[in-house]
Amino acid sequence: DGGITQSPKYLFRKEGQNVTLSCEQNLNHDAMYWYRQDPGQGLRLIYYSQIVNDFQKGDIAEGYSVSREKKESFPLTVTSAQKNPTAFYLCASQGWNTGELFFGEGSRLTVL
Amino acid sequence: RKEVEQDPGPFNVPEGATVAFNCTYSNSASQSFFWYRQDCRKEPKLLMSVYSSGNEDGRFTAQLNRASQYISLLIRDSKLSDSATYLCVVNNNNDMRFGAGTRLTVKP
Hints:
The complex is a heterodimer.
Chain A: E1 4-7, E2 10-13, E3 19-25, E4 31-37, E5 43-51, E6 54-57, E7 64-66, E8 76-78, E9 87-94, E10 101-103, E11 107-111
Chain B: E1 4-6, E2 11-14, E3 19-25, E4 32-38, E5 45-50, E6 55-57, E7 60-65, E8 70-75, E9 84-92, E10 95-98, E11 102-107
Parallel strand pairs in B: 2-11
Antiparallel strand pairs in B: 1-3, 3-8, 4-5, 4-9, 6-7, 7-8, 9-10, 9-11
């Protein structure tokens, strides 16, 4: 089936540790996105990538890093510099015809 | 000013009611617009795109007013299953920005 796969679904980490969230798509989409959602809040853009080997910062990029070495993959690293990393992280890719965003099921990160 | 603003609600309505949400955006150069629905602890899913001429899908009607920079969503004959958070999305050169969402609860 075509779609977006995020892993892990749930992740716990200790303060001071880096963690990488995986996002893979087999929709052949060029553009991919990472958003963060806090309880009762909307989605805030962390990073987005319109093409392989290129990405742009969103509103809250500090403490995060990304790479886009392959079209299918857009991993997000939450570094120890991110002061409040506990959140729901959503990855999406964008259809080139309609502009619609297709989301993965999300990754819930809890920092202990 | 936020790029995309929505009334957070909550909107609590009885079954069968008609409810409308508005969303304003700050970038007049924005090219395309969408409404997404998000259920609790789930990912957002596309409800409908918003076209300049307005568009309808069953009980749902979306409209765009470029002059005043807002989009709207009208839900007629509300069902219990319409209870969710509704997010508006504005696209500016593939920079996709979300509103904070409007929470709707439809009650029996």
